[in-house]
Amino acid sequence: MGREDGIKRFDEDDGQSNYKTESCKAVADEYIEREIMNLLIDLILYKPKAYRHLLYNLLNQQVVNLEGLFWKSLFVFLLLDAYRIVFLNWSEEGWGLSMSFSTLILRCGKMLMDLLFGNFMFLCSLLLATKFILGASAGVSWYKDILLAIFITSYFNIFLIAMMVWEFPSSVLFIIDIFVLSSNTVALKVITESSISKCIGACFCAHAVKFLVRSVPSIICQNHRDNSASLLPNDF
């Protein structure tokens, strides 16, 4: 299913901006005639037809510059994820004026590595899962459509901004991750037209790889620090 598959077209005969089917002339996309608030509500409710309207009608190369939108969406996606990493690091290890400059550099380097390498592995895992789990294989432009859909449908990360104003426990991040995973799953189902179970498996694998890439080094370092501290002589 592509962006220019011809199943919907603009009806110029009656002067109305309705997308209609070629066969029966019925309105193919009901969101053309509805308020944007209805679309937002249905997106939050994970309705596939709302995601289909977003990904195929609103994000149409005849309406927007998809190339520019792709890089802008990637920037926002990384920016919100960077804030998530900083918030987690601050809540777990804390930041203070007593922190040495070398420690600050190491932490910033680790967070940058988590951001870039973690998301690189996430996107690679997602594309591989799309190919092997969903059995989908297409050109570069089709994979870019998938990545753009993932960036756009990670909109639940916008709730991270609220954590700048109000205090929330770090467990809220887990809830946001569940919402993002669910939204990505529906988007992948709409793009690939695969079964929901396969789409859940593909998205879960990609998010799991991202979690492991970020968590395993921290666990190893923590165990190393604990072992080093246990080998130090105790002064009585």
TrEMBL record:
Highest taxon, organism lineage: Eukaryota
UniProt cross-references to Pfam families, sorted A to Z: Arv1 (PF04161)
One biological process term in Gene Ontology: sphingolipid metabolic process
Transmembrane regions: 111-134, 146-166
Keywords assigned by UniProt, alphabetized: Endoplasmic reticulum, Lipid metabolism, Lipid transport, Membrane, Sphingolipid metabolism, Transmembrane, Transmembrane helix, Transport
Signal peptide interval: none
A Gene Ontology cellular-component term: cortical endoplasmic reticulum
Subcellular location: Endoplasmic reticulum membrane
Membrane disposition: Multi-pass membrane protein
InterPro entries in UniProt: Arv1 (IPR007290)
UniProt function note: Mediator of sterol homeostasis involved in sterol uptake, trafficking and distribution into membranes. Regulates also the sphingolipid metabolism.
Similarity field: Belongs to the ARV1 family.
Protein name: Protein ARV
Provenance organism: Actinidia chinensis var. chinensis (Chinese soft-hair kiwi)
